[in-house]
Amino acid sequence: MRFAIPTSLRDRSVRIVVWLSLIAQSGIAVTGAFVRLTASGLGCPTWPLCTDDSLVNTPEMGIHGVIEFGNRLLTIALLVIAVAVLVVFWRMRKERRDLWWMGVGLLVVVPIQAVIGGISVWTQLNPYVVGLHFIVSVAATVVAMLVVLRVRDGDRVADVRSIPTLSWLVGVVTAGGIVLGVLTTGSGPHAGDANAPRNGLSSEVLQHFHAWFAYASVALVVLAIIRSSRGARRSWLVLAAGFAFQILIGLIQARTGLPVELVGVHVLAAMVVTCLVTSAVYRSATSGSIATAIKSAVR
Q1: pTM, full prediction
Q2: Is-contact 280 170, C-beta < 8 A?
Q3: Least confident segment among 2-16, 41-55, 63-77
Q4: What confidence score (pLDDT) does residue 155 get?
Q5: By the 8 A CB rule, do 46 and 52 touch?
Q6: DSSP 162
C-alpha cells in the first residue's frame, strides 16, 4: 500500500502523526526522568559514543548502560516522528504556514536536545544543564500540543492576540512553578548518578516557593473558571483537576522522602498539566481566520 501525502487536516494520518508527536515530545521528558531516578545518567559515560570505543552499551556496563543507551535510541524515534509531521503538512505548507513552521520547530529541537544531553554527560550531569534539558522538552510539548489543537480545529483557529490577561497569567505562573521544580530537583537526592553535582541551593526553601507557585496557579484557574464562558470552562475545570492531582502527589512525595516512584509520577503529571495549561489558555481565545493564525505564527 502506497502512502499518499495528505492534502487536508481531516486526513486520519495527520491526526495520528500529530498525536504521536505530542506523546513523543512529552514522553521523552518522562523517560529522561526514569534515567535520572534509576541513577543511570552516566550509564553511557561519554557522548556521542556510549563509551570511548563503542557506540552502543556493552554487557560490562550493566543495567545502567542499557537504560541510558535505550533513552538515546528514543531520540531516533523522536526524529522520525518529527520528520513525519513535516511530511503530512507538506502539501498544506503554503495554506497553513502556522502548522508548517511549528513542525519545523519540532524537528529542529531534536538535535538541540541531543546536544544538550551530550553536554550534560560531558559535565557529569550538571544540574543546570539537566534542568535545561527538561525545560526544552516542556517547551517542545507546548508547541506539539498547539499543533494538535489547531489540527483538531481545522479551518477555524484561535487568535492568540485575543487571549485574556488572566489566561496568560496562568501560563506564566505555571512556567515559573516548573522552573522552580527543576531547581528543587537540582538540589535534591535524585541526581542521576551517585557522584553527580548538586546546585547547592536549599531544597526546603525551594520546595516552599515551588508549592506557592502551584497554589497561585490553582487560584488563578479557579478565577478563570468563574469568569470564563461556558465553552472555555470545561478546559479550565479539567486543568483544575490536573493541578489538584499534581499538588497531591507533590505533597505526598515531599512527606515520604521523595520515593522514586512518586517522583516519576510527579514528572509525568507535570507533562500532562503542561498540555492541559496549553489547551486551556489557547481555548480562552476567540476563534479567528487561518490568515490571522498564519500572520501570528510567522511574526
Answers
A1: 0.92
A2: yes
A3: 2-16
A4: 80
A5: yes
A6: G
